[in-house]
């Protein structure tokens, strides 16, 4: 398989993760744990609205990823968001995390995939 095709597959994979977390889990609220996390960290009174807004922002991230506009900036922002979000959640709501302490491992793996996509695969694609 060519690097160009690998890149496309990885970008779709990354986009799907953001889409599922944003639309299915947060906008449709099919995974109430996300709203519980927001309620505990930010504000219980506006947890639904904040969770919905985060979901919308994640959908915007999907559009940005698929547009390929300033993809390195997008990748760096994704990594920063994922790392900071997971550290905050680990500190404040570890009991609500799907995998507990292992969440940070999965988050790190996802960050690695994002980095690999834009800083390794995409570079090979244009060489």
Automatic annotation (TrEMBL):
<keyword id="KW-0812">Transmembrane</keyword>
<keyword id="KW-1133">Transmembrane helix</keyword>
<feature type="transmembrane region" description="Helical">
    <location>
        <begin position="73"/>
        <end position="92"/>
    </location>
</feature>
<keyword id="KW-0472">Membrane</keyword>
<dbReference type="Pfam" id="PF13781">
    <property type="entry name" value="DoxX_3"/>
</dbReference>
<feature type="transmembrane region" description="Helical">
    <location>
        <begin position="98"/>
        <end position="116"/>
    </location>
</feature>
<feature type="transmembrane region" description="Helical">
    <location>
        <begin position="7"/>
        <end position="30"/>
    </location>
</feature>
<dbReference type="InterPro" id="IPR025695">
    <property type="entry name" value="DoxX-like"/>
</dbReference>
<protein>
    <recommendedName>
        <fullName>DoxX family protein</fullName>
    </recommendedName>
</protein>
<feature type="transmembrane region" description="Helical">
    <location>
        <begin position="50"/>
        <end position="66"/>
    </location>
</feature>
